[in-house]
Write a structure and sequence with these properties.
This protein has 183 residues and is of the alpha+beta class. The chain has helices at residues 34-44, 60-65, 75-80; strands spanning 6-8, 17-21, 29-33, 56-57, 71-72, 86-91, 106-107, 115-122, 131-132, 145-147, 151-154, 175-181.
Length: 183
């Protein structure tokens, strides 16, 4: 004889009762309404960091505010969360800085109106500690970093610190562009 999980009883109440069978547990059956059953599940089978259980998904608003520690977050809602400034790191690629003052623009793939800052780290040929490029102006000034709707453009100063043989090899990534942006 098999036991069905749900079995409707002959209750004349407008909210139908169901007999819920839990196999050979200490309590063989419970007679309750659906409302009570789901309340029972939330209390008895609630999940925590140390126990498996039933969890409710957070709404986008709850994810954005970040104050409810009892609900789960999906990857999509996390990605859509307005959580402030984010960073994107882009490889500069090959650049012989000794002979080329300005490489081709490097695509950033962002909505340029949401960019809040750009930093650049340049590596020497000895792959030593990277040097930060100071942002002097967002135009074509020496050692400038500027961007438009699609690319970041780097320019090194002729006769400056990056215009020498220590920055001439092209077999590896010259450094990184770090973009601060809002989602």
């Amino acid at each position: 004889m098999s036991t069905r999980l749900f079995e409707q009883t002959t209750n004349s109440n407008p909210d139908p009762s169901y007999r819920i069978a839990f196999g050979k547990a200490a309590v063989n059956t419970l007679n309750m309404t659906f409302t009570n059953f789901f309340a029972f599940l939330r209390v008895q089978l609630g999940a925590s960091e140390s126990a498996k259980g039933v969890l409710q998904l957070a709404t986008q608003t709850e994810v954005n505010t970040g104050t409810d520690d009892t609900k789960a977050v999906t990857p999509l809602k996390l990605a859509n969360a307005n959580t402030g400034v984010r960073q994107k790191v882009i490889d500069i690629g090959d650049w012989n800085m000794d002979t080329t003052a300005t490489p081709a623009g490097i695509a950033h793939g962002l909505d340029w109106t949401k960019i809040r800052g750009i930093n650049v780290l340049i590596r020497t040929d000895a792959i030593g500690f990277p040097r930060a490029v100071p942002l002097l102006a967002q135009d074509s000034s020496p050692n400038a970093i500027f961007f438009n709707e699609t690319v970041v453009v780097l320019t090194r100063q002729t006769g400056g610190v990056f215009d020498e043989v220590s920055y001439s090899t092209t077999f590896y990534n010259r450094g990184w562009i770090i973009i601060d942006y809002i989602p």
